[in-house]
Amino acid sequence: MPNIHAFATQSDLSAAAADLFVQLATASQKPLFFVALSGGSTPQALFKLLATPPYANALPWEQIHFFWGDERLVSPDDPGSNYGQAKALLFDHVPIPAANIHRVKGELPSGLAIVDYVDQLNQAVDDCGRAWPHFDLCLMGMGADGHTASLFPGPISTVEKTQPVMTVTAVYEDRPANRLTLTPLVFNDARYVLFLVTGEKKAEAVTAVLHGPPDPEKWPAQRIQPHHGQMDWFLDQAA
Ligand code: 6PG
C-alpha cells in the first residue's frame, strides 16, 4: 500500500514535492540521480518552484539526469510538448547541462523516436546487464480516467508487458493523441514513485485506484506497483 499524503492546497502539495525532490537528490549516495518527469498541468507549479531559490541552489544539477515518463509525439517547440514545458518552466532557469536532458525526440516518426529513446535509456544504465536505469524518482500524474503517463484504460497489450517503451494513440481531453510512454516494466523498477494528483475531477479515480478492487485494465494507475521502491501519493483535499 503506498503512503498517501493529503495537502490543504495544490501549492502546499507542490512545496512538499519540491522539498522531497531536494531531499532525494541530495541524499542519494549514487553519483547520478535519474528522474522521469510527467507532463500535463499538475507538475507545472513544482517545476517553477525547483527553478527558484531556495530549491534551485540546493540541487546538484550536474548530477541530475532528466527523462520523461511519457511524451507527446510533437516537436519540442509545440505547446503540447512535455519537454518544452519543463524547459520553459525549469531548465531555462537553472545550470543543468544540456547532456543531462534526455528528451523524447517527438519530431521523429514514432518508430525512430522509440529506437532513439530506448538507446538513451540504455546509455543511462547504472548497472550492467539492464536495458533501462532504476529511476531514482518517477514523477507521475493521473488523469480523471485513471490513466498515468500514457497508459490508458483498456486491455493491457503484450507490448506493454514486454517492452520498456511503446507508442500510444490517446484520447484524453484536447491533448495531443500520439504519444510515447515508458511502460510499467520501467516504472516498477524505480526506487521512488511519486504521484501528484490534484483537483476534484480526479477524486473518483483516486478512490478507485487506491481503495477499489484491483482492476488495472480499467484503472491504469494501478499498474504502477514498484517491486522494491517506495511509492507515495500526494493529493490535495479536492482530489
Ligand atoms: C501527459 C501526462 C499525463 C498527465 C495526466 C494528468 O503527458 O499528459 O504525463 O499522464 O500526468 O494526463 O494531467 P494533468 O496534470 O494536466 O491533470
Verbal overview:
This protein has 239 residues and is α/β, with parallel strands linked by helices. The chain has 7 helices and 9 strands. It has helices at residues 10-27, 44-50, 82-89, 110-123, 158-162, 184-187, 203-211, and strands at residues 3-7, 33-37, 64-68, 70-72, 137-140, 165-169, 178-182, 192-197, 230-236. The protein binds 6-phosphogluconic acid.
Give the SSE layout.
Blueprint: E1 3-7, H1 10-27, E2 33-37, H2 44-50, E3 64-68, E4 70-72, H3 82-89, H4 110-123, E5 137-140, H5 158-162, E6 165-169, E7 178-182, H6 184-187, E8 192-197, H7 203-211, E9 230-236
The structure holds 6-phosphogluconic acid.
**So what's the overall shape?**
globular
Q: How many distinct helices?
A: 7
Gyration radius over CA: 16 Å
Instruction: Tell me the strand order in the biggest sheet.
Output: 1-9-8-5-2-3
Please provide the ordered H/E string of secondary-structure elements: EHEHEEHHEHEEHEHE
- The overall pLDDT average reads 96
Largest sheet: 6 strands, parallel
Unreliable runs: none
User: Residue share in helices?
Assistant: 25-40%
What ligands are attached or bound here? 6-phosphogluconic acid
SS class:
alpha/beta
Please count the beta strands (DSSP E, at least 2 residues each). Answer: 9
Strand content: 15-25%
Distance between the termini: 18 Å
